[in-house]
Amino acid sequence: MEAIIVNEEQVKNGLFPMGEKNDAYKDVFVGQSYLDMLVADPEINVGVGNVSFEPGTRNNWHIHHDGYQLLLVTAGEGWYQEEGQEARRLKVGDVVVTKDGVKHWHGATKDSWFSHVAITAGTPEWLEAVDDEAYGKLKNK
Amino acid sequence: MEAIIVNEEQVKNGLFPMGEKNDAYKDVFVGQSYLDMLVADPEINVGVGNVSFEPGTRNNWHIHHDGYQLLLVTAGEGWYQEEGQEARRLKVGDVVVTKDGVKHWHGATKDSWFSHVAITAGTPEWLEAVDDEAYGKLKNK
């Protein structure tokens, strides 16, 4: 049975532009993501970007050192997981706070496009990809 | 001629909850605003809130000391003005960066509901209300 893909139009016609293919980060993502930077200013200690994910796309495990990351979900459905915790299903309006030093990943579900605004401080450390089998087993809750 | 009020449903059914009447800040607003805090965490150096404004509602002139404010417009139409500059008309998807020490105000237009996410660092200093006559003269551009 072929999966039904959802939320493509919602992501492509979101509040903020979808931006370009996120080539700068392609080595630390599985799948295709898109990035539109909303705030990138040397006088401001956070960067703000609109990140969009095609279905099945997720970033690698990573850590924000000397900083944090805040996610505001704006379209579609996705996952957020911290190391040692169960993955959390994300929908529009959800907010995620990732604290300094916490290993985590985020991305779309298998069947849905997904967008979040990411507010990020500090220096990221990029780690291994999310295990395909573990990702494949994630189920709607 | 009575004004036609727009964007009420867009604001009331926005991505993020509208929250409660913003009574904590009522002395530094003209009109009725609403606040839903999305991130308020002592370990995070910014606060993130969804602020909604009834038509004609705006905050007083204010300054963020030792910090900044970032606005992401999520619904309706509004105004942003820095001291000594012309007011800037805001629509969905617009982004505003207010730097440390800059005197400014923001709010709805006369005829539209308005919502923005505000990402705020530092300590605000609240000043005088926006002049009624000057606000009344603002025109769509």
TrEMBL record, chains A, B:
<dbReference type="InterPro" id="IPR011051">
    <property type="entry name" value="RmlC_Cupin_sf"/>
</dbReference>
<feature type="domain" description="Cupin type-2">
    <location>
        <begin position="51"/>
        <end position="111"/>
    </location>
</feature>
<protein>
    <submittedName>
        <fullName>Double-stranded beta-helix-like protein</fullName>
    </submittedName>
</protein>
<dbReference type="InterPro" id="IPR047263">
    <property type="entry name" value="HNL-like_cupin"/>
</dbReference>
<dbReference type="Pfam" id="PF07883">
    <property type="entry name" value="Cupin_2"/>
</dbReference>
<dbReference type="InterPro" id="IPR014710">
    <property type="entry name" value="RmlC-like_jellyroll"/>
</dbReference>
<dbReference type="InterPro" id="IPR013096">
    <property type="entry name" value="Cupin_2"/>
</dbReference>
